[in-house]
Structure formats: structure tokens, C-alpha cells
Amino acid sequence: MKSxxxxxxxxxxxxxxxxxxxxxxxxxxxxxxxxWLMLGTLRFAWQDYQVSLAMILTVVVLGYYMALHMRxxxxxxxxxxxVLYTTEQVVHTPxxxxxAISIFVMGWVIQFIGHQYEKAKPAFMDxxxxxxxxxxxxxxxxxxxxxxxxxxxxxITPLAREKRRxxxxxxxR
Length: 173
Hints:
This protein has one domain (6-172). Helix content is 76%, strand content 5%. The chain contains 7 helices and 2 strands, in the order H-H-E-E-H-H-H-H-H. The mean pLDDT is 94.
């Protein structure tokens, strides 16, 4: 498994433009919420309980984040648990899948607008694991804005800039 520093520096390498990062603070939560809602519609009975694929994904994804970086994962718990709770409420309304698809598409439109500012393709196009790193990256950026995890920021930013230079050099060839 790649380290948090490796994952974050790779993601940040195509997210250096402040406008792009701003669009991601809107688009990524929309995509996550809508994905949880879609997965929440896939349910099965386990003993006397209804379990959704979103519930299972919550445990798996939070475990992955905890393995990467415990302090960032704690922030993600505070983000993902309300996502799970609210999507579980919407699952029981009429047409939850249509709601999910609509928000999912809007979230991706916002993402791709951000990448127009960046002049770089999204990170997941080279590594699908980067889809999981988007929320992790945004939590790291939030921590950095609040003055937390300064050592992590100091470590990933130069690596991200170097990776970006390498990407741009490859593109020019």
C-alpha cells in the first residue's frame, strides 16, 4: 500500500491551482454523497437488520483512511458518518437513484470545470485508487488551512510540484 505522503503528493500534483481545489470542495462531497446514496439502494437482510452496500463501504473506506493517516481519518469520520446517515434517510424517499445520479453528474461537471483551471487531467485517470484519495486530499487541505499537519503539508507540496514538473515534461515530449 502506498503511504499517505505518496497518495497525497500524487493527487496534489494535479491539484495545485487554488480554483481547482475550490471546485473540488464542492464537487467531491457531491460525488461522495451521491455514490453513498446509490450504494444505499443496494440492500440485503443480515440477521434482523437491513444492511446496505454504503454501510459496508463506510467501514472499508474509513479503515483504509485509518491505515493511511489516523488524524486525517478522524476528520473523515466526521464527514462520512453524516453522509451515511443522510443518504440512509433519502434511500427511503421516492426515486433515490434519480436523485443520486443527478447529483453525481453535477459533481463531476464541477470537477471537470476545476480541471480546466488546472490544465491537467484528473488523478484517477492514471490510477483508479485516486478516486478514494479525493476526500482524503480535501481533508488534508482543510487541516492545512486550519494550521494542522504542517509537517505533512511541507512534505507533500514539494513532492507534488516535482511530480507535476515530470508530468509536464512527459507531455511536452
